[in-house]
Amino acid sequence: MLSEKMTEALNEQANRELYSSYLYLSMSAYFESINMKGLASWMRVQAGEELVHTMKMYDYVISSGGRARMLAVEEPRFAWGSPLEAFQQVWDHERAVTGLIKALAGVAEAEKDQATRSFLQWYIDEQVEEEESSDMVLNKVKAAGQNEAALQAVDRELGQRKFKFPRGFNMFPYGGTP
Ligand code: OFO
Predict the structure, then answer these.
(1) Residue 177 predicted with pLDDT over 80
(2) pLDDT (tens digit, 9 = 90+) per residue, 103-155?
């Protein structure tokens, strides 16, 4: 059974995960608007992953006897000056999220809630990957600079990314065809 404090902290983090999804969807729409379909696709996959992060936390709250609460989602930024500016924000954002996840793990430790601390290890590991991939993409976009042909090549390469549900995660536990 989750403590009230733990439930509140998990609901707040689920809200931040949903905001991350919203932010990346906004970036995807921005890339659509400048006709960079590969980057738009990469961001849409990223938005999907963040939605999974949200739902995994939502499911955990419910299965641990807590009450999931839908807090207001902040409106993300609408436009960026360049792909580089957008990917710089991705990198900054992921580092900030890592800090939030670590703080959340700290709440679980303070509450002596081993089950939640263990559940959060998946997010800690995921953040290592997210920081790594945002760093990799930022470097590619930086290297392309203002060179249109190089940017188009990055656009094609990043457009190859495919969405995959994490192993064992069921987005639709009540049934339904994906
Ligand atoms: Fe949920 O990992 Fe990015 O923000």
Answers:
(1) no
(2) 999 999 999 999 999 999 999 999 999 999 999 999 999 999 999 999 999 99
Residue 155 CB neighbour total at 10 angstroms: 21
Nearest residue CA, atom 3 of ligand 1? 94
pTM: 0.96
Structural element, H or E, at residue 144:
helix 114-144
- Residues lining ligand 1, Cβ inside 6 A: 17, 20, 50, 53, 94, 97, 126, 130
The closest-lying atom of ligand 1 relative to the alpha carbon of residue 127 is: 2
Q: How confident is the model at residue 30 (pLDDT cuts 50, 70, 90)?
A: very high
- The alpha carbon of 15 and the centre of ligand 1 are apart by a number of angstroms equal to 11
Alpha-carbon gap, residue 45 to 62, rounded angstroms: 26
The DSSP symbol for 74 reads P
At 47, which helix (H) or strand (E)?
A: helix 37-63
Distance, CA of 9 to CA of 5 (rounded, Å): 6
Number of alpha helices (DSSP H) and beta strands (DSSP E) in the chain: 5, 0
Task: Please count the residues of the chain.
Answer: 178
Amino acid in position 150 = A
Domains of the chain: 4-158 (1.20.1260.10)
